[in-house]
Amino acid sequence: MASCQVQAGTLGQLFEALAEQIPPLSTLICKDRLQSSLVANLNGDRFISDPETPLGENDCVLILSADAGG
Amino acid sequence: MAFGYHGRYLRVDVTNGSAEFLPLDEAVLRAYLGGSGLGVRLLLEAGAADADPLAPEAPLVFAFSPLVGSPLTTSAKFAVVSKSPLTGRINDSLASSGFAIAGKRCGCDAIMIVGRTPALSAIVIDDGEVHLESAEEFRGSTCQETEAGLRARLGNGYRIASIGPAGERAVRYATISHDGRHAGRGGSGAVLGAKNVKAIAVRGTKYSEWAHPKELTELSRSLSKRSFGPATAKYRELGTASNLLTFNRFGALPTRNFQTGSFEEAASLSPEVLNATRSKTRDSCAACTIGCEHIYSLGKTGVRVEYENLFALGSLCGVSDADTVLRASQLCDQLGLDTISAGGTIAFAMECVERGWLNEPWLKFGDGGALLRAIGMIGSREGIGDLLAEGSRRAAQVIGHNSMAIAPQVKGLEIPGYEPRALQTMALGFAVGARGADHNRSGAYEVDFSPKVDRRNVTIDAVQHAIETEDKAALMDSMIMCKFLRGVFEDFYTESAEMLRNVTGWDVTADELRETAKRIVSAKRQFNVLAGWTPAEDTLPERFLNTPLPNDPAASLSRERLDLLVAEYHRQRGW
Angle at CA B536, nearest 5°, toward B531 and B542? Predict the structure, then answer.
């Protein structure tokens, strides 16, 4: 599981920043949203998708495959 | 007859070695398609719901599908459908290999086996001609040894499905294996073993034609191309094992017989660590472009690693030594045992020992040697293995105390690696599943891993989502396509209709397929009702309904709430 720190006030801003800072990720991000094959989770608690979701200073966003099965 | 089908099935009675082709009406094929759907329909027609699944008259069906043999990626699959000796309910186990293609080329859409041979035998089907051969020399052999030995005897061109020692000894969760893959859950290997059939060898030359070959080829190319995309990256890169650390992070990794959802030593079993510490090769099923198989070295051999193996033989038994878990997985493959039920039943026994309900002091959580010993004893039905070969529900009935409350099963089928309290839409899927607790017939965990629900406190809104995933699975299992493709489709039903139109020539639509999926789910329910199902079966073990998850107390599911969800599920199904 790789991790990095990014400055962002909302989920959408986070994705935009990730796409800019880590170019390979840009193929998995459509503007301010994840592709449908991925989901985002806030602090190991709830899953989020609205780009306007506010993020706090120490929030941790997990990005994982939408297909959990196996 | 529609393209893509032969319009008949082969019925083999191994008691006297007779075989006959019986017609399949096109309307039936359109209504049930193939695979699971066709299998359950044939079982209903045969009156199989009443039979003892281990009795000679109980039918076992290998069902193919219209897509088998087509250029569509992941379509080389078949379903093994019977009444389960583990649950007494419907069982449909799916697997992928060249057996599906060779079986269909025998000129049939399904093979039904009934009867019992006087001596251990192999069924040989050569282009539709059937005969029985002695398989006594393979008695006690592993699945792999049997396949290799029979292939050497019969010559090239045959594809062979076989049972291991566990199937011969009627272990209730024995598998049917072929080419290293298993029709794994529910004990179809025991059903075949009860017929004294060690193996089935098939080869043939009868090809199906496609209604619109040019369009089908173009569609297949497009689907293959998309199967290389991000929707399947997880399966290519680390395989299903990548769930392990994710689930652990969410407190949803069943540990020590579901006593908690977090395994402190999970990292040692993770594919990230396995990748870094041992060599690995990748492989794929026949006719598949995804390539999800990750085979890790173990000494001079290789072991195919899936999330369910790691969970069931690792965290569930508290075992963190990777070599031991890989060896346990390999041993299950050799004996022909379902890893989920084997691990679940052993973990249950370990907790019973811990509580003083079972006097087998060597059988302790975290003891890899004990895990391997227990698997061997189950395969041979020696000592405590004879009881554990019956599965956790039957074992709990014998052990007594309040052990049924901690037996990790629904309808007798051991629960896969999804902690129900942390993933409550999945909990509903487990409770209502026709074949018991199952992650392949209900993909409701996908809903839990989405913003659609609060996974630790789901409401009535989750029911519709659970039904949608169950319907989708029923269609995929009947067409048949691999579920790892599901993220590739932008509009699953529309694209499925397009595939079927190009293969069969039917003017099938997305709406028709939605109805087909519901019909297949209902047919499984009908089978269960005829087999004695009662509403009380659609529930979870008491442990999950009276104890919050210790590592995450917010993950709590009361009996009242589950009952409400189940009642709403029945209402929406119209049952």
Answer: 130
